[in-house]
Specification:
The structure holds 2 protein chains of 2 kinds. By secondary structure, chain A is an alpha/beta fold. Chain A has 2 domains: 2-245, P-loop containing nucleotide triphosphate hydrolases (Rossmann fold, 3-Layer(aba) Sandwich), CATH 3.40.50.300; 262-343, no CATH class. Chain A has 13 helices and 12 strands. The longest helix of chain A has 18 residues, at 203-220. By secondary structure, chain B is an all-alpha fold. Chain B has 2 domains: 2-73, no CATH class; 94-350, MetI-like fold (Orthogonal Bundle), CATH 1.10.3720. The longest helix of chain B is centred in the middle third of the chain and has 38 residues, at 214-251. The chains are: A alpha/beta, B mainly alpha. The complex binds adenosine-5'-triphosphate (ATP), iron/sulfur cluster and magnesium ion (MG).
Chain lengths: 344, 357
């Protein structure tokens, strides 16, 4: 059965470089009393099968909203105002509600930052786990309780027999995140979105959970969209990285290239801020200044108010016009006037 | 879960003892002379001495309490000074009326209030939501007696001779009787043994259902509708508002997002994941409302000509009928303790985190 499914996939997707997910110029705005919050403002990215795509950026830059937009789970007053989200060649923004529910949890699943509050406190974890199977496969076959046990075993939960009948409050954060991952993996999705999956966990557990995600990727060949604000995690996990700033992507490159030679001044700042052994630095203090308000964006480059390079190179264009995403080096894209000639 | 209920039951014992003491003390603290308020201002001192002697009112207070406690534990709550009958007899007559009324009023409030709250939350900020909440706000501020009068006027008078007419007073249509279940079942009960069966038989709808008297059941239910609506409207409105706000709050939580991300349909998200969590504060409110229901019951009983606890309690307080006041206060307090117990157990059932403590 699985083999059959795989050959089907190959038939449909002959070329490896045909992306699984292709987001183009996505814009998600929140229409609030204070004004329009442009949480996601022109994000484009692709995710290929089997690839771990890192998305990195400071808090509030729109990472989660990008993820929620892909699943079309943005709550009011938020709204996806424009863009295209092609998943397996089909635009999700044109899907019906029913098509979206059929897709969520089955083809694209997501795990969140706070695992404990992401589980329903009044239901046993086993029943929450089986719910995914019931939703997506329940009409075709009978869902067996033992499946929850084996799913828990797959994500490395000790004593899964006992754990299925636990309530979330009886588990640690790391354990709960494993349950969330098991839930996300239950239907063997093509894409797993992990939205800061380890931020709420302590360091040793972080490493275990990240290992688990990578192993599952290797085993099932699913694609992972890994959202984080931690450059260390990106370096360790991602094949390719998108750096976001104030609602838009500012740089994109293969992980090695990015860390070797970051182009965007913001990325350079982020990389410089990775804590060096024994020295604890606060990431946010390294790049001076604050993210601009997403309601009143500066007219030119969004990073201009904080950009040291702009001052150093005395660039006038920065505060006038927003730079474009250009391919500065092969497969290395950046949005910055340093690399874009004004005429082009 | 069973352990939880057992622990709560044990905790109820000292509470019950405290209640017995307080009701006893309160009755003694009421100003006024029981003898003269019962027998009239002109009763002579000799008559009153005999009266006090007979009802043990000359004994020292601790002795009175000891006797009271002993009798109460034996199910003997004393005789009514005014009616000259055992209080238990009065209770068997009156309490079922109030219990039945309160239960139907609460049923009405819960069965309509919770779904209204859910619909309001589900269609948040729509015209359905706004309309429901305006209705609920009007409902809360509607005095029971006014609503009762309006209902009985509308359904009992204006709709007379239409199929929508409803009886505006009494418990059964004159001439209708429902045979007590213990007679139908051929049970031989008399005297003290009659207390509990008598109590049950006096809950008309329950008794009718037990003996299968469907015409009687229909008649009893029809008589319940208006008083239950009058008494249930305030709790209904409160429950609807509470359900709505609680559900709206829950629907913004992380695990709701998870449920949506699993591919659950919106209705499943709201009912399976939202409602159970949202019901916790609603259950508390229902418990509290059951308490306030009683004050409303006094007015409702008066308007709809039902001879329940409300009336007799009022008469006894003004007439210094100690034993009756004591006994009814006690029984009402005991009912409260058990309602609380049920609410707590329901809470523990709904929320596994509470079972632990
Ligand atoms: N309901 C809302 N109303 C108004 N603005 C919102 C709402 N939800 C999110 N936003 C805005 O959208 C922006 C992007 O939020 P998002 O959650 O995507 O950030 P993030 O990059 O995931 O940050 P974090 O690292 O803190 O998770 C934030 O600046 C926030 O102010
Ligand atoms: S465009 Fe200008 S302001 Fe923006 S990052 Fe580049 S140099 Fe800095
Ligand atoms: Mg986020």
């Amino acid at each position: 059965m699985a083999a059959l499914k795989d050959t089907n996939r190959q038939n449909k997707q002959p070329a490896d470089d045909q992306p699984l997910l292709e987001v183009t110029d996505l814009r998600t705005y929140f229409f609030t009393r204070e004004g329009t919050v442009k949480a996601v403002d022109g994000v484009s990215l692709t995710v290929k099968r089997g690839e771990i795509r890192g998305i990195v950026g400071e808090s509030g830059c729109g990472k989660s909203m990008t993820a929620m937009s892909i699943l079309r789970l943005v709550d009011k007053p938020g709204k996806i105002v424009s863009g295209e989200i092609l998943f397996k060649g089909k635009n999700l923004l044109e899907n019906s509600t029913r098509e979206m529910t059929a897709l969520r949890g089955k083809q694209i699943s997501i795990i969140f930052q706070e695992p404990k509050s992401s589980l329903n406190p009044v239901l046993k974890v086993g029943s929450q786990l089986l719910e995914v199977l019931r939703i997506h496969q329940g009409s075709k076959r009978k869902i067996n309780r033992d499946e929850a046990v084996s799913l828990l075993r797959d994500v490395g939960i000790p004593d899964p027999q006992m754990r299925v009948s636990n309530y979330p409050h009886e588990m640690s954060g790391g354990m709960a995140q494993r349950v969330m991952i098991a839930m996300g993996m239950a239907c063997e999705p093509d894409l797993l979105i992990a939205d800061e999956p380890t931020t709420a966990l302590d360091v040793t557990i972080q490493a275990q959970v990240l290992d688990l995600i990578r192993n599952l990727r290797d085993e099932y060949g699913m694609a992972v969209m890994l959202i984080t604000h931690n450059m260390g995690i990106v370096a360790e996990m991602a094949d390719i990285v998108t750096v976001m700033y104030a609602g838009t992507a500012v740089e994109e490159a293969r992980t090695d290239d990015l860390f070797e030679a970051p182009l965007h001044p913001y990325t350079q700042g982020l990389i410089a801020s990775i804590p060096v052994m024994g020295k604890v630095k606060d990431r946010l203090e390294v790049i001076p200044g604050m993210v601009p308000s997403l309601i009143d964006m500066p007219p030119g480059c969004r990073f201009a108010p904080r950009c040291v390079a702009r001052v150093k190179h005395q660039l006038q264009q920065c505060e006038v016009e927003e730079p474009h995403m250009i391919e500065a080096k092969p497969n290395h894209y950046v949005r910055c006037w340093l690399y874009e000639s004004e005429e082009s | 879960m069973a352990g939880f209920v057992a622990r709560r039951l044990t905790l109820a014992v000292p509470v019950l003892l405290g209640i017995v003491f307080v009701t006893f003390a309160l009755a003694r603290l009421l100003p006024g002379d029981p003898c003269r308020s019962t027998l009239g201002e002109k009763a002579t001192d000799e008559v009153c001495d005999a009266f006090n002697e007979r009802y043990g009112l000359n004994d020292p207070i601790p002795e009175q309490f000891r006797i009271y406690l002993r009798d109460a534990l034996n199910g003997n709550l004393g005789d009514s000074i005014k009616f000259g009958r055992p209080v238990t007899e009065l209770m068997v007559e009156r309490l079922p009326v109030t219990v039945e009324l309160s239960v139907y009023a609460m049923l009405f409030a819960v069965v309509i209030g919770i779904p209204l709250g859910i619909i309001s939350a589900y269609y948040h900020n729509s015209s359905i939501d706004v309309g429901t909440m305006i209705g609920a706000n009007i409902g809360v501020s509607m005095p029971v007696f006014w609503l009762g009068l309006m209902l009985s006027y509308f359904f009992g008078v204006m709709l007379k001779d239409t199929p929508l007419w409803l009886p505006p007073s009494g418990r059964l249509t004159a001439g209708t009787t429902i045979q007590p279940f213990y007679e139908v079942w051929g049970l031989d009960v008399n005297g003290d043994a009659l207390t509990l069966p008598g109590f049950i038989a006096n809950i008309n709808t329950l008794n009718a259902a037990l003996v299968g008297d469907w015409a009687g059941l229909r008649d009893a239910l029809r008589h319940m509708i208006l008083p239950a609506m009058a008494l249930g409207t305030i709790p209904l409105s409160i429950i609807a508002r509470m359900t709505r706000s609680s559900l709206l709050e829950v629907l913004g939580l992380n695990y709701i997002r998870t449920a949506r991300a699993k591919g659950a349909r919106e209705l499943v998200v709201v009912l399976r994941h939202g409602l159970r969590n949202a019901l916790l504060p609603v259950v508390t409110i229902i418990g509290l409302q059951l308490g306030t229901l009683l004050s409303g019951a006094v007015l409702t009983e008066t308007i709809f000509g039902l001879s329940g606890v409300g009336r007799i309690l009022y008469d006894s307080i003004t007439g210094r009928d100690y034993t009756v006041v004591q006994a009814f206060t006690l029984i009402i307090a005991v009912i409260f303790v058990f309602i609380n117990l049920i609410v707590d157990s329901l809470y523990a059932y709904l929320d596994p985190r509470i079972r632990l403590e």
